[in-house]
Every structure is written in structure tokens, then in C-alpha cells.
Specification:
This protein is an all-alpha fold. The chain has helices at 3-12, 15-55, 61-71, 81-95. It folds into two domains: 1-56; 58-116, Recoverin, domain 1 (Orthogonal Bundle). Helix content is 66%, strand content 0%. It is elongated.
């Protein structure tokens, strides 16, 4: 089929272009949804793992909540690896019988979070 015949087909039936764009759009939306679902599931499993490790300490939920808030330096509601390590340190501090600080001291800030 020669090049110009495609233009003639499109000129006679403009809905072909619309159908191509609609199909491409829905394919794009499907790919984006799959990527977001995958990201959500990986974050959820990481969140669950962090939470279950913290719960193993058998500290009260109110104390664990305070530790989470102190450790969540970027305030995104999640703990990355550095924040999780900090949370585990604070759990050990509490288990050793010490009080938690009202605010996180500068010397406990992980190096990756000092610029925030």
C-alpha cells in the first residue's frame, strides 16, 4: 500500500485516528496504574515489615508512635533505611530504661538527613 493511501483512508474516516488515540491513552493509563500499584505494594510491604519489627519490642503503641514520629525525619509517613535504623536505636534506648527525647537531638540525625 502506498504512503498516500493511508492519508486517504484517514480523511474518509476520521474516527480511525480517534480510536487509535483512545486505545493508546487507555494503554498508557493501564501501564501507569500497574506501576503505581506495584510501587504502593512495595511501600506497603516495607511499611508492614518496619511496623512488625517495631512491634516485636513489645513497647506500648503510644511509645512506638512517638518513636516513629521522631524517626520520620522527612515527615513523609514512611521510614527509609536510615530512619528505620534510627527507630530501632530509639527502641533500644527505651528498652534500656531511658526516656525518649521530646525532639530528636542533632547528633542522632542520620548523615543522609542532615540537609533537610
Amino acid at each position: 500500500m502506498e504512503k498516500w493511501s493511508w492519508y486517504a483512508v484517514i480523511a474518509q474516516n476520521p474516527l480511525i485516528i480517534s480510536e487509535v488515540f483512545v486505545n493508546a491513552f487507555f494503554l498508557w493509563v493501564h501501564v501507569i496504574c500497574v506501576l503505581f500499584i506495584h510501587k504502593f505494594m512495595s511501600l506497603y510491604s516495607y511499611f508492614s515489615a518496619a511496623k512488625s519489627e517495631m512491634v516485636k519490642s513489645k513497647l506500648p503503641n503510644s511509645v512506638l508512635g512517638k518513636i516513629w514520629k521522631l524517626s520520620d525525619i522527612d515527615k513523609d509517613g514512611l521510614l527509609d533505611a536510615d530512619e528505620f535504623a534510627l527507630a530501632m536505636h530509639l527502641i533500644n534506648v527505651k528498652l534500656d530504661g531511658h526516656d525518649l527525647p521530646p525532639e530528636l537531638p542533632d547528633h542522632l540525625l542520620p548523615p543522609s538527613k542532615r540537609d533537610l
